[in-house]
Every structure is written in structure tokens, then in C-alpha cells.
Amino acid sequence: MSKPRTKIQQRNSETILDAALEVFSQHGFRGATLDQIAEVAGLSKPNLLYYYPSKEAIHVALLSGLLDTWLDPLRAMDPEGDPVEELLAYVRRKLELSRDFPRESRLFANEILQGAPRIRAVIEGDLHALVQEKAAVLTRWMDEGRIARVHPVHLIFSIWALTQHYADFDVQVHAVLGPGEPDPYPEAGRYLETLFRRLLAV
Amino acid sequence: MSKPRTKIQQRNSETILDAALEVFSQHGFRGATLDQIAEVAGLSKPNLLYYYPSKEAIHVALLSGLLDTWLDPLRAMDPEGDPVEELLAYVRRKLELSRDFPRESRLFANEILQGAPRIRAVIEGDLHALVQEKAAVLTRWMDEGRIARVHPVHLIFSIWALTQHYADFDVQVHAVLGPGEPDPYPEAGRYLETLFRRLLAV
DNA sequence: GTCTATATTAAGATAGAC
DNA sequence: GTCTATCTTAATATAGAC
Lengths: 202, 202
Description:
Number of strands of chain A: 0
Number of domains of chain A: 2
Strand content of chain A: under 5%
Largest sheet of chain A: none
Number of helices of chain A: 10
Structural class of chain A: mainly alpha
Shape of chain A: globular
Order of helices and strands of chain A: HHHHHHHHHH
Helix content of chain A: over 70%
Oligomer: homodimer
CATH class of the largest domain in chain A: Mainly Alpha
């Protein structure tokens, strides 16, 4: 339901989305089952389908709610700000998203891995346009000699790759670091700040 | 079958694994179906199960064949070589793996995303040990002042993240770059060489 | 070795009582 | 609004003919 009326509808809709996020982000769309989602949500399977007409509808509701949040940090990059600080702020916010919303990151990763069947239009439309717009800003900064010259779109790719890695490959990160370091994010933040400062220094 | 006897068994086993790679890498283990694999392989479903006893057996055969190949470039990093050139060679080989074996990369990504249920032991064992061994080499290079000091394990994570991104998020990379640039790898190679040269310069 | 036919289980979705 | 029971389809796997 996009417009829940009562308190209980509001609460159950959210409970279902949260449970669905848990399951879809781990198994992908086809690998997820309504039985699992129902169990995690603590509701019966028919009750899920009272709130959302189908499995696909739940998935769509999740993805469309997610995309704006996911692109906000990039939108927030200010063309009039200090170039290096704007980029580092973007890296920092993106890493915070990985830390605070790892399931959302994995849901997105699953969708892209599977060929983005449900969000291809948005990727080729809004996302493409936003990246090209910000790439133009980066290019201007490079022309003005305020950051080093690199390929602007690949620069953005590298920010995505480096920050999302900590959410999407969480299991591997923890296994490789070993049980000594339970929270990799503080060190990851320092590492990425160093990396981008050195890359962008003129 | 791990030990095919006849030519035809050899060929069919490989056809099945190739088809399974195609399907598993796109949909994950649970999202993949034997029907799809059979169709891609051009064989009947029961014929698949003549060669492999179960869906799980096919998946295991794929993963165990993959892991060695995947870690070879890291193993090849020579402690006695020139530090920057050894690291750049590793980045280059890893990027070539993404370019030449994107399905393998996505199969691995799917498995990790899903919590690595089938290869957790290898991740925590062999992979952990190999990374710690190579991290020690990197630390020595830093102590000797031959590369800049950064967290060695996060350095390795960043190589993985940046190179695998081009295989795993292929759809997004192409959509964002637009139809003008069909092959992102040459530019990606230049970008990553610049990035790691600047990061590691003393 | 390969296929058709089928057993068996699980999954998405619906009916209808409460 | 929520549940039990159930329909229907699709999926893994097996039997058995050829």
C-alpha cells in the first residue's frame, strides 16, 4: 500500500518491507520466498498479500523507496564548494550509508548483478543524467587546476566501488580481517580519505 | 563428475558447467533453476542429473574450480620484486580477470552477498591466510620506505573492490557511461594505474 | 547416454471463515 | 485484518524405456 490509512496498516506495511529487505538482500528476487518474508515479519503469508498484491509489488516498493536515498549524497555535492572537501564529504557519506544501511546496499547489488531487470530505466535515465551532470562539475574543477585530472566518471565509479564493498562483501571483509577487528569502518574511513586525498592532490 | 572418462562425458560436463555458470552468476544459487541450465546447455534436465547428482553439486563444482584461479594473481605477487610494479601488476591481472571472466566474478559476488554459505570455510581459512601473508610483505615494503604507508589489508580490499566492480556492476557501468563508450576497460586500466601510483608513491 | 513421463515438494497466490 | 485451508504452478529429482 502506498497510502496506508490506519496506524496498524502503517506499522504492518513497514514490518513487511523490513522483513522483505532482509530476505531479498540476501537471496535476490527469485531466491527469496514469501514464506521466509512472512516468518521474518511474524505475519502469515496471506496477510503479506493483503498489504501487497504480489511478491513483485513488495520488491518494487523496496527499490523505489531506496533509489532516492541512495543518490542523495551525490546530489549533495556542491559545485560551488571546495573540490577536495566536497569529494571527501561524498566518500564519507557514502561509506556511512554502507555502514548504516548494508541491507539496502546488498539489495541494490543483487538487482544490478541480475542485470537490473526492474530498475534499468532509472539507471539509464536519472542515474546516467545525474552522473553526467556531476562529471561536468568535476571536469571544470580539473580545468581550473583545483583537483588532479582523472577520468571523472571512473572517479565516481571508484567511490561507489570502494564504499559499497564494505557492505556488499561484509562477510569476506570480516573473515579476512579476522576476529580481532570487529568494526572495519573507522579504518576504512581513514584509508579512503588518504586514498582520495593523494589521488586528487594537484 | 570430477573424473570424466570418455570424450563425450568430458564435453557434456563442461557444457553443463558453462551453462550453470551463466545461470548461477545471474540469479544466485536459489534463483537459478535446472530448467534454465538445461535449456542453456541444450540438454534435457534428467541428463544434467546424470552428470551431476544435484543442483548443489553443480554449484560446488563451479565454485571449487573457481577459487584457485581467482587467487592466483595475489599468490603471484613476488616479495622480492619491485613493490609498486608488483602491486600494479596485481591490479592489472585482476582487472583482466574481470574483463575476461565476468560471469565467474558475478558467481563469486553472489555467493559472498548471500553470506558465503558454501565457501565460508575457504574464506576464513585459505583466503584469510593468504591475505595475511601478503599483508606482511606489504608492511615490510612500507617499513623499508619503498611504498607509502597505508593499511595493507584495506589496500588489498581496494584492489578487489575497484577491479571487480567492472564485472559485477557491468550493467550500471555501461548505462552510466552511455552508448558512446562500449568498452570501459582501457580507460579503467589507465584510471586504476594512476590511482595506485599516486596512492603508493613515497 | 539420453529421453519421456512422473513422483514429490515447495512456492505464489486465492477462498472464505472469523 | 488475520488466519486456516487450498488451488495451481513450477521446481528438484527419479523411474524406466530406448
